[in-house]
Every structure is written in C-alpha cells, then in structure tokens.
Amino acid sequence: MSDTAVPLRDKVVVITGASSGIGAAAARVFARQGARLVLSARREERLRELAGRLREQGATVSHVVADVSRSDDALALVEHTMDRYGRLDAAFNNAGTAIEKTPLHLTDDDAYEQVMATNARGVWNCLRHEIAAMLTCGGGAIVNTSSVGGLVASSVAAPYIASKHAVIGLTKAAAVEYAAHDIRVNAIAPGLARSEMVDEWFARHPEARETALRSAPQRRAADPEEVAEAAAWLCSDRASFVTGATLAVDGGRTAW
Ligand SMILES: NC(=O)c1ccc[n+]([C@@H]2O[C@H](COP(=O)([O-])OP(=O)(O)OC[C@H]3O[C@@H](n4cnc5c(N)ncnc54)[C@H](OP(=O)(O)O)[C@@H]3O)[C@@H](O)[C@H]2O)c1
Asked: Which domains does the chain have, with CATH numbers?
C-alpha cells in the first residue's frame, strides 16, 4: 500500500480510553493507517478483545491496563511501549469521563475531584511521561481529547467544562514548550459523537438528545470514526506544521 493510504505506517502510537467509543474507533482507524498500537483503559477484557480483532486483520497491537488518573499507571504505559517497541511516535490521550448534570452550587467536591482527576490530571499524567519518552526519540506528536465543552460552556456541567478547558491549556503549554524538540501537541474538540458515554447520558436525560441535535448544524451525532480520523491526521506527518491547535470536530456546533 502507498504511504498515502497508510500515513501512520510503522508509527508506534499509544491510545488511552481505547476500550470503547472514540478510543476504540481510533484503534481501528490508526491500525488501518499502518500504526503499531498500544491500547489502554481500565477494562482489560474489552482491550483484549479489540486487540485480538485488530491482530487478526494484520495489525501489531498490545494492551496495558491503566487508570490515567494515576501517574504510576501512565508511566507504566509509556514504559511498556518503550520496552516493547523501543520508541513512542504518537499518543492519543483520549480517556475521559462525564458528570451528572447538577447546578454548580449543588455539585459536591467529590464530583469535581473525580472529573478533574480523569480528564485534566489524566492528560497531565500521560503528557509528562510521553514527552519524556519522545525527547529520547527525537520528537513525536500528541493529541489530547478536549470537547466542545473545552471551547464553550454549557449549563449544569461546570467541572466537566473546567476539565476540558484545562486540556486545551495543557495542550497549548506543552506545544509551546516542546516545539523546538519536534514534539507537536494538539487537541481535538469533539461535538456529539455516538459512544457509551453519550448513550448512558441520553438514557438518563432523554430530553438532552433533542436539545443536542437541535444545536448541531449537521443535525446528527458523529460516528466515532469521524472523530478518530481527525486525531489520526494530527498524529501523522501530514500535520507537520500544526501544533498548539484545537481542532473542533463538531459538525459546525461551535460555528453557530
Ligand atoms: N462522545 C462525545 O459526544 C464526546 C464529546 C466531547 C468529548 N468527548 C470526549 O471523548 C473522549 C472519549 O469519550 P467517548 O465518548 O468515547 O466515551 P466512552 O465510550 O465512555 O469512552 C471513555 C473511555 O475512557 C476510558 N476511561 C474513563 N476513565 C478512565 C480512567 N480513569 N483511566 C483510564 N481510562 C479511562 C474508558 O475506559 P475504561 O472504563 O475501560 O477505563 C473508555 O475507554 C472523552 O475524553 C470524552 O470526554 C466525547
């Protein structure tokens, strides 16, 4: 296959949050584009099944169980990658969690801590260890998953909104700091994409589906692979002059 068809050929890529939704879609998209993958999340059975399916299709894939809110787990993920492949070319820091819709003044500290620990500290933990590894490899590319909620606010989700704004801040800071080391750091800001997180959300808040679709110019949710394609492009050398950017993958949601 030509390099155009496989823009991630042989690149060693870590994907967090790979057990479902956008992360699992990214595993499929990145594998099709030639990447060698390390898939990570907390649910091992999911990772094992997905890795097995991708291997049957010819991909090189391993998996590591890790909770991104724990720095030691993020370190172990990067160490596994370096031990196994001898390098780390790209990382898609995609693991994230949502929060029950609650007015800010009624949100308790635990809810805040929990969403920040996964969404903001999780990206921080991965970023630190990935950059340390990439500095020994001569460069790399990192994509962090923020959200439309990292660009604009919505009601009754303040900790989530804060955590996704933090992801964009970390992305910009790291991009500026490591640009001279050939490490690019970007974020994607998905709008509504079909996933377990979203399905559970709509199951608890049926009225939210209509509201979400009304605020999306394309009037539909994304297939998770449509979001993963953007992350794959940012991880590839085709995006070689893009760093510190946040790419909205939202069907026009934030253009309104
Ligand atoms: N779908 C959307 O509409 C949408 C919109 C904007 C942003 N996003 C963002 O996109 C990302 C992926 O979400 P999704 O929609 O694909 O939802 P999802 O299907 O629920 O996937 C979330 C993933 O994150 C992993 N995860 C959660 N907490 C973790 C932790 N502490 N450590 C390690 N892994 C953890 C989950 O795996 P385990 O449970 O196995 O650990 C799962 O693989 C998230 O960052 C989310 O905020 C999604």
From this structure: 12-250 (3.40.50.720)
